[in-house]
Amino acid sequence: MTDHALLLVNLGSPKSTSVADVRSYLNQFLMDPYVIDLPWPVRRLLVSLILIKRPEQSAHAYASIWWDEGSPLVVLSRRLQQQMTAQWTHGPVELAMRYGEPSLETTLTRLAAQGIQNVTLAPLYPQFADSTVTTVVEEAKRVVRDKKLNIQFSILQPFYDQPEYLDALVTSTQAHLTQDYDHLLLSFHGLPERHLKKLDPTGGHCFKDADCCRNASPEVLATCYRAQCFSVARDFAERAGLPDGKWSVAFQSRLGRAKWIEPYTETRLEALAQQGVKKLLVMCPAFVADCIETLEEIGDRGREQFRAAGGEELVLVPCLNDDPQWAAALNTLCERAPVAL
After folding, report:
1. pLDDT single digits (tens) 226-265
2. Based on CB atoms within 10 Å of each CB, which residue in 26, 57, 209, 307 is the most buried?
3. Cα Rg of the chain, angstroms
């Protein structure tokens, strides 16, 4: 059977490190209503203000981590695509980016032209958020609707609690965990608190107390990004045999003045250094491929901050990237992805 494609979807990247390409990318990304969930006129004004200075700053950051082959995120995603091509036996394996190229629209249109009618859509995000999973699914549906494509989707659900994913995560970090280190920080991408509150099906659970994530019901957990992150951290620590006190969780990549989920990574880096942590490991389980948020934000700026606060060594643990066990795990997860209604 060769009529069932697998479509891997990651966030995306600027075409190059030029300020113009970075501005174009940031504009597309930040104008997504699932990313900045404000009314269009307010969002347009806010993004226009951000685009005055941010593209130049971001271009410098991208240039500091750019590879000869291109954007690390895109290069690593393509390597995973190659791994998946050997695993997925039902048809072609394609790669698209939610922002930038290759776009979902271009890729889905090409698949439909090839006669593909069934696509397993795989947003490469372990945890659920509107700004990651929902926007990928909605954009794919929009393309099919607007282009009148004869395509039916099976959709990979967030896999933060799936044993195949967790086992691959532990295996991929084993070489680092067997070395001497003082503490492991699991740094997840942050979100504004309002993103979580508006998805709370009870209307009153999120942030009502310090243990709201640990006490989340299955109904709340299904859409609570923060609770899913803490779940990953606990399951990872248990599988890896990490003792309490040897690891902690934080959230990075804040943007704007809104209240974001805590604890903040930069605050945690400083506190750990001041508590006497000398060798710190940092892993970023919200990402399956290394990118500007891991390589530059943690690997460069985070390392500088940790050292300035009194720490000695910060080691960035690589993401899953194109790890063979991760590719096998992802294949298994995609095989059982449910058909969208």
Report:
1. 999 999 999 999 999 999 999 999 999 998 888 999 999 9
2. 26
3. 20
Query: For residues 111 and 104, what is the distance between their CA atoms, to the nearest angstrom?
Result: 10
Measure the CA–CA gap between 274 and 255, rounded to whole angstroms. Answer: 26
Residue pair 274/310 in contact (Cβ under 8 Å)? The answer is: yes
Calculate helix-pair angle for 324-335, 163-177, nearest 10 degrees: 170
Q: Which amino acid is at 337?
A: A
Report the run of H or E that residue 21 belongs to, with start and end.
Answer: helix 19-30
Q: Residue 252 in contact with residue 195, Cβ under 8 Å?
A: no
Assign residue 148 a region: left if phi > 0, alpha if psi is -120 to 50, beta otherwise? left
pLDDT digits (tens, 9 = 90+) for 273-315: 999 999 999 999 999 999 999 999 999 999 999 999 999 999 9
- Which DSSP letter does residue 39 get? -
Segment 166-181 shows an average pLDDT of 97
List the end-to-end C-alpha distance of the chain, in Å, as a whole number: 22
What letter does residue 144 receive in the DSSP assignment? H
**Residue 189 annotated in ligand binding:** yes
The answer on whether 60 is annotated among ligand-binding residues is no
How far is the CA of 303 from the CAs of 180, 267, 310, 316, in angstroms? 18, 13, 11, 9
334, amino acid identity:
C
Give the tens place of pLDDT for each residue, 187-211: 999 999 999 999 999 998 999 888 8
Distance (Å, whole) CA 135 – CA 311: 39
Question: Is the peptide bond preceding residue 263 cis, with omega within 30 degrees of 0?
Answer: yes
Q: What whole-number distance in Å separates Cα of residue 219 and Cα of residue 252?
A: 26
DSSP one-letter string for 217-284: -HHHHTT-HHHHHHHHHHHHHHHHTPPTTSEEEEEE---SSS-B-SSBHHHHHHHHHHTT--EEEEE-
In angstroms, the CA 318 to CA 55 distance is 26
pTM of the predicted model as reported, rounded to 2 decimal places: 0.96
